[in-house]
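> run fold Simple sugar transport system ATP-binding protein
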Amino acid sequence: MTVSPPEMDRVLEARSISKSFGPVHALTDVSILVRPGAVHALVGENGAGKSTLAKVLAGIEQPSSGTMTIDGAAFAPRDRADAKRAGVNMVPQQLSLVGELSLVENYLLVGSRRLVSRRSARALLKATLERARVDVDLDLPTATLSQAHRQLGEIVVALAEGAHTLILDEPTASLGPLEVGGLFEHLRSLCDLGTAVVLITHRLDEVRQVADDLTVLSHGENVHHGSAARLESTEIARLMVGELPPPAARSERRPGATVLRAAGVVAASTRDASLDGVDLAVRAGEIVGIAGVAGSGQNLLLDVLGGFVKPDSGTVAFAGTEAGSRAGASAAAFQRAGLAWIPEERTEAVVPAMSLRENLTVYSAAVGAARKRGGATRDARTGGTQTVEDTLSAYDVRPVRPELAASGLSGGNQQKLLAARELGASPAPRVVLAYGPTQGLDLRASQAIRERLVDLAVGGSAVVVASHDLEEILGVADRVVVMFAGRIVADLPIAEADTERIGRAIAGLVDGSAPDSPARGDVE
Ligand SMILES: Nc1ncnc2c1ncn2[C@@H]1O[C@H](COP(=O)(O)OP(=O)(O)OP(=O)(O)O)[C@@H](O)[C@H]1O
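> ok
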């Protein structure tokens, strides 16, 4: 294949693509036509085959059968670089930036225009950032950036490389509404120049907002393709996941004693806003939602609350254990005391090379050993007498194959696996810390996880849910805490948490001082 800059207005077509991984038929006879100048949404339930199709188009996976063409000429990329040279580029779900390198260096490393100087690479990325109206540091090692900024950074590198067909696999999963708005505007202006965009998303509002064409996959097969405008959201949802049960009515919850308390917490971070005197008390039986634009300190707060990061000053108390700048319990002690933890980046908690069984039982050995020493207060985290198969089925992890490596699961099913381990523990966790717990999940699975969080709170767990998705927070929370620049700037009971009030606080426009939160007192 010759190296030439991608020309616009190319039609990418895949016909009768099938792809199997051993016994799993990920795609069966799937076809898609990607038009220049249009956003093509690719949707479907978790495990439907969306990422696999995207990887086939982008040369990352080879189809078992089927053909592809660009403008009628055969297109059979040997690998990702080959597809890029032909003008097809993909930003995968699992980000691939090299953490030690800055965005500029990552661009120089992967860019097809290898002879570009550092200065012109920087200028190109800066111009791309400005067009997308997002602000990401170009010179820091990407490992020190927040998840949202790394995701934007990866997209910006791909945009700067130039492609006639750009495939984005759930690009908005960790972005807030402002960033999504800027990104979509940029995608539209690329389309005006003739670029084709394939957008994988679980968010129906995004399909309505930005897509021209729509392909729906189910169980590895095409179930719909056509104009996005012609279908109502409810019809798209039905095609994706079938009829959804009505969401459970909001249940009455009566918060009990405080089980988790942060007092005067100061902590520094390069990946997130540093915490600047945070007080937060969370009671048994309540769900506290944490809202804020990405990088306002939510991630660091959850890390401090979970005992993963020791504060520079201040304390965190949980179930009789205190973590502070001097004395301190470790995250392991908090976990033995009943902490469930769902981080923003699932790869921090799910080990792709380990089997589903190993991922589910990874804590059992440690907890068992601690119990022998008399130090444990809770049971193994696999669900007591439940078998691994039972736990996988209860959380609808597909396929139910305990010996499969977690890397063989789709992204959404990896998220379900994590939820199964953390939320399916027996006895139930005393505290749940979850960042975007429904990230990457389809509508049905999202609803199930929200209901599980509510059930846990009804049963007496103290639950903290941070998310960039305000609807997610408003759907489950009893209180909404808003963070801005490392401080808590609002703490509103759900009845007073209307979107306008929260929106003002998220933007840092708060009237009056930060709310009083009882910073001292007993923790049960
Ligand atoms: N490397 C692999 N090895 C084994 N099975 C795989 C592999 N990659 C994907 N699969 C399987 O192929 C099927 C389709 O997965 P894919 O990742 O394409 O789904 P998806 O629609 O993108 O899901 P999600 O919305 O959860 O990201 C799933 O059953 C998955 O388990």
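The two ends are 67 Å apart (CA to CA).
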